[in-house]
Automatic annotation (TrEMBL):
Lineage of producing organism: Bacteria, Pseudomonadati, Pseudomonadota, Betaproteobacteria, Burkholderiales
Enzyme Commission no: 5.4.99.9
Transmembrane portions of the chain: none
Enzyme class: isomerase
Record key words, sorted: FAD, Flavoprotein, Isomerase
Source organism, top-level taxon: Bacteria
PANTHER family: UDP-GALACTOPYRANOSE MUTASE
Protein's organism: Paraburkholderia denitrificans
Obligatory cofactor(s): FAD
Protein name: UDP-galactopyranose mutase
Amino acid sequence: MKYDFVIVGAGFAGAVCAERLATNGQRVLVIDKRNHIGGNAFDCMDEHGVLIHPYGPHIFHTGSKRIFEYLSRFTDWRFYEHRVQAHIDGNLYPIPINRTTINKLYHLDLNEQETADYLASVREPRERLTSSEDVVLSSVGRDLCNRFFRGYTLKQWGLDLSELSAGVAARIPTRTNDDDRYFTDAFQFMPAQGYTAMFEKILEHPNIEVRLSTDFHVLRSIIEYDHVVYTGPIDAYFDYRFGKLPYRSLSFQHIHLSGVERFQSSGTVNYPNDQEYTRITEFKHLTGQQHAGTSIVKEYPRSEGEPYYPIPRPENEALFQRYNELAEATANVTFVGRLAQYRYYNMDQVVGAALKAVEALL
């Protein structure tokens, strides 16, 4: 059979592209080297019957009504506002830093304006924000930087704040009120039946065929197709011609606690200054599932392994641009997604990038 499009990767980028193309009359083959759909957002029941995210927590949030309404065609939603705490010297503090964080940490009783004044007094302004250290110091000063950010960043990225591009720290706000939500987007929901159920509905179009445990480099020579949508690592597509793009990887320790209804008081607890892991997430907060036990995951950043996070440094961006020039000169191939575009995308941003890519193709 000849396909109009072969889509490499069954995560958000690949699934959304497949659905849009299929709905517009194209014959689409979706392949993935893993044995499941959904990419890193894949979820499933563990052996104890708790719905978990094997590749770490995925919390959906977006400010885009268009993206939310698009995904709403394939799932019902459960309202969920994610909350994160930082474990510091045996105590838990809201993160992002807010008025509660500062009052509890320094044994103060500041109102909102006094909190703003306090932050203004400890900030270390920078003329140019070139690194994440510049961003954090100019926002919250040195003590809060060292307590909440420096150690976490070193574990997460294997780099000091001063070695990371400014955009990484710019993703985390600072608040002078008591808002302890991790995100403030207009749409904060979790798929009511899980991500995998949503992906199944996205991909159930009659014009879509899905093949799992399939390697594109093997398949490409034995099938006929007009165009490829590639969502994997862009450097892998070109056989690492200029060398490998640096990624940060993760390993996960999944633990089930029988007879423990609730392990921690928020969905995620960060450990910036102690422990080898960066954070613990308890899935029942995210899913709202009722169960006599609970399942948690500890995340351990790694320098080697599956590519999860593009490492945002100027030299890495320069290397990506060399690959991107090859991509733009490659006929009949569209590169889209976090790995193909070497971007630190949230899930909704990947959906947006996929919708934009298909509009251009059509």
